Amino acid sequence: MPERVEIKSVERVFDGFFAVDRAEFVHEKYDGTMSKPTTRLLMERGDSVGVVLYDRERRRVLLVQQFRFPAYVRNGPGWLWEIIAGMVDKGRAPEEVAQKEAEEEAGMQVGRVWPMLTVFPSPGGSSERIRLYMAPARLDGIRRTAGSPDEGEDILVRDWGLDEALDMIDKGQIVDAKTVIALQYLARHWDELP
Fold first, then answer.
1. Domains of the chain
2. pLDDT digit string (tens) for 12-48?
3. Among the options 24, 28, 82, 151, which is catalytic?
4. Residue 151 designated active-site
């Protein structure tokens, strides 16, 4: 299997809400030779976390809904149902960020969070790595708004039956990738959950 990569240059071409780097590199091919030099743009988004709160006794999950401009401009729904998520600040543990985001985005305090998976949602153009977690919580008819006004957040918080949430995936009502992955993982491992 190929392993060698030689990075020739990396130049920051944009630095704002996210960063964009222009990189030139060569990599080993399957036949053992090196590729021709390739130039790619890389969106440097940083690491993030997602956490799905679940109520094992009631077989329910908590989702949040908020406006997502990038989805809106691609003729998708502007308001997406998602698991709780946030960016990992430098110097903070991902688990700590997951707990903080649960409180900020949903008004829920959670103790320990358990890791599910780590995924790269768009590895062809972005370096973002999402660590997905799960946390048990008591969910019973939760419906409220939350979010940080300082960050422009206006978030609807609601709990759903797990089977209902899975049906929403099938009907195209849940289209956020991290949420689809987390809910399917949760359903597959429901009987083993802490």
1. 5-44 (no CATH), 47-192 (3.90.79.10)
2. 999 998 899 999 999 999 999 999 999 999 999 889 9
3. 151
4. yes
